[in-house]
Write a structure and sequence with these properties.
heterodimer, A: about 170 residues, alpha/beta, six-stranded mixed sheet, about 25% helix, B: about 270 residues, 2 domains, five-stranded mixed sheet, two-stranded antiparallel sheet, 7 helices, 9 strands
Amino acid sequence: MSKFKKNDGKKAPGINTSSLPDIVFMLLFFFMVATTTKEIDPMVKVRPATGIGMTDLTPFKQRSEVDFVYLGQPLKGDVDKFEKGIAVQYDGILHKDGIRHIGKWKQDKFATKPAEYTAPREETMTCFKADEQVPMGILFEAREILGDASFYTIGYAASEKPNNKGYNIRTQ
Amino acid sequence: MAKREAPEINAGSMADIAFLLLIFFLVTTTMDKDTAYARKIPKKVEVIDPEPVQKKNIYKISINNKQNIQARDSIIKPEDIEQLNSRIKHYYLINREKVEDRNVDYPYYSMVTKAFIDQRIAEAYNKQENYEKLLETDSKYEKFIEQMDNEIDEWNRKKRILDLYTKASGKKEMPEIAFQAHVRLESFIDTDYSAYVAVQSEVEKAVTEMRDEEAQELFGITYTSMRQYYQTNLLEKTPKVQEYKDKMDLIELLFPLRIIEVKPKR
């Protein structure tokens, strides 16, 4: 007589999966709330600068008051084709005029937005997402063009600095 | 007729549908937040014969193409950048609430009182009356009258802020830093973006810490949390949003963040 009974043809009881959809829906809602939609795929390499105490742009994005410009080395193609090796990405394109196109681009963006959605001209933000090694001269050129077109609000994008690390400044 | 039971719907594929949706959202969204330093480009105004800015009111920080930083007379290496924090706080706080025995190299504070504001408002009204009389002779005075209107509005705003300050702190005098006092950021054409942003970060951090401390003392809530609430609920016109706005105005008047970014020459 053995203690172990032989499995005489009985199947293991099935696991009740009726609450599986609930669990998955819970996960789904969590991700819907906690994430934001991705913008366009980057065409330039951007290693973000770090800093503390930035303004969160999420409310600005929800009110569609902010436009992003990406600056950095191009991911594809020839680096030498661009001035100082820095390509400027407006939405989906790397414009050949580089930063000098910014005035026209911003004007177009502003004009195509419905009036009830957007803030007054002076308050729509232009946010520079620049690679950490982008020279400041380019950004000041952009500032001047935007200032002349009376788009007075700009943003310098940065990501939160980890507490135990310093700023990633290139030393020479 | 006998009542027939409705057949049960098979919900076994519900999980599959939910998974599909979940994976879709995982792919199309990102977790990282967009954060940035919001700055204003100064408007171009033509001023004839501008009043020169006194040297004590400028805190000049320059960053060269090797990412070395010079704050006033001291050179700071990139790895010691966190020194800027205490230096900027020192710049703001050394003469605060002092009327005598002030350090001549740092911006002065004035103590704003109700009587002082009232006097200024009365002066502005007087001037405006004069201009109105002169308007009959020359239409160019219209502009001056408008200017006086703005000035009166500005003083009235300050009066409301002072009221709030008196209510919160019990003091009748409000310390206000010289209106010219500012941080002046200079860079080279080929200064790295990361170094420039790091300096912005240090300045912002120093001022925000002072603001937080002051707000905590006056209202029992930090400036940062008030600002966060205000920015997300900006479009709703609830009394709480307005209350926070007023309080933030007061704190910003006590510790103004004025950064002038100078276009690089070389």
